[in-house]
From TrEMBL:
Protein keywords: Signal
Protein name: Beta-lactamase
Annotated PANTHER family: BETA-LACTAMASE-RELATED, BETA-LACTAMASE-RELATED DOMAIN-CONTAINING PROTEIN
Taxonomic lineage from the root: Bacteria, Pseudomonadati, Pseudomonadota, Alphaproteobacteria, Sphingomonadales
Record keyword Calcium present: no
Chain segments annotated as transmembrane: none
UniProt xrefs under InterPro entries: Beta-lactam-related, Beta-lactam/transpept-like, Diverse_Enzym_Activities
Organism: Pelagerythrobacter marensis
Length: 375
């Protein structure tokens, strides 16, 4: 009769250890007031789930520092949140999201009949007799397959094309530096992502729009065109484009705007260039922007696409977790405008995340988007 009480005592002694070994995860902490307040009443998704996913972006240090987030569903804000020190009036630098703005500006000039996609653009040094760069077309520049020797994010960093152009020997006349580089491949034959290419596009716009070559005239012509044709009609009142000393828009890197205005720009693209009944850029142009390049499955006209590139494991987006039709403007250190027409979604994330953190960040953003089924 002795063993029974001994066994019972032994079991009781082991109970805390058994509980500690349980596979049941600890419940998440309660949502803060800030997390709950970020979600609107008509969010188009379960409010508490959306609040939780948004909160994860702000509290998960492994995803870097999120400073602003906008989720728009069906054109309405579903969630909006800012980190301490930032608010809806804060202007955030675009970094490479500016490339997509530059592509829209070029599309407007093509629609105006001032440029042609498959012609050599008006770059004077390329038009000299015998210069092989005269074979480069506007389409090839838009798709990052010009063949010019532009090395983005090179090693060492100070020898990278974007660093030299933005901060070193090219900084006073960025387009001149970018356009002076020789060919390293046949135009159209290969993809090479390049901020210098976007500056060439911005220079082409200035040459077409300005009657004079002086910096102030170039600056006024391009800034006026952007505000009259794009920023003004979209009520993007916070937008501030930057120009170099020669009056060239730094069209690959430096446009500033608040989170809501970046959201307006993304939703404008979701509607294929239409805003409140006005077609600001042809639908076919936005379709071309979001169609794969012949040399890069996940890149269109200065715009990233949610597609897998054969033979590559890394991806700047998340194929398989959002529709293939999703596209994005992506900027350095984790700036994103994610646009998913099938989900009626535009998501803007602005902040600071390094390469390792961005891998986590992308999955957090995918978690938000998966709350909205494709239609």
């Amino acid at each position: 009769m002795c063993p029974r009480p001994v066994s019972l005592i032994a079991c009781l002694a082991l109970l805390p250890a058994l509980v500690s070994c349980s596979d049941t995860p600890a419940p998440p902490p309660p949502l803060s007031e800030a997390a709950l307040a970020a979600v609107t009443e008509d969010a188009g998704a379960p409010a508490r789930q959306l609040a939780r996913q948004v909160d994860d972006l702000f509290v998960n240090e492994e995803a870097g520092e999120t400073r602003a987030l906008i989720v728009m569903h069906g054109g309405m804000i579903a969630a909006e949140r800012y980190a301490p020190g930032y608010d809806r009036n804060t202007r955030f630098v675009s970094w490479s999201m500016a490339k997509t703005v530059t592509a829209v500006m070029i599309g407007m000039l093509v629609a105006d009949g001032r440029l042609a996609l498959d012609d050599s653009p008006p770059v004077p040094r390329w038009r000299r007799p015998g210069d092989p760069r005269g074979e480069i077309t506007l389409r090839q520049l838009l798709q990052m397959r010009s063949g010019l020797r532009h090395t983005e994010a090179g090693d060492p960093p100070y020898d990278s094309s974007e660093v030299r152009m933005l901060f070193l020997d090219g900084r006073d006349d960025m387009a001149d530096w970018a356009e002076s580089q020789p060919l390293e491949a046949e135009p159209g034959s290969s993809f090479e992502y390049s901020s210098a290419t976007s500056v060439i596009l911005a220079d082409i716009a200035a040459r077409v729009l300005s009657r004079r070559d002086d910096p102030e005239a170039r600056r006024e012509a391009v800034a006026g065109y952007l505000h009259t044709r794009l920023f003004g009609p979209l009520a993007m009142e916070s937008m501030v484009p930057e120009f170099d000393a020669n009056g060239t828009l730094i069209g690959g890197s430096l446009i500033h705007g608040n989170a809501r205005d970046w959201g307006r720009f993304g939703d404008f693209l979701r509607h294929k260039g239409s805003y409140r009944g006005s077609q600001l850029v042809p639908r076919k142009w936005v379709e071309a922007m979001t169609a794969p390049s012949p040399r890069r499955e996940n890149y269109g006209f200065q715009t990233w696409l949610n597609r897998q590139v054969p033979g590559e494991s890394e991806n700047p987006l998340f194929p398989g977790r959002a529709p293939q039709s999703m596209f994005a403007a992506i900027g350095h250190m984790g700036q994103y405008i994610l646009v998913s027409p099938e989900q009626k979604l535009t998501v803007v994330r602005l902040g600071h995340s390094d390469a390792e953190e961005r891998a986590v960040l992308l999955q957090e953003l995918a978690d938000i988007m998966e709350l909205y089924p494709a239609e």
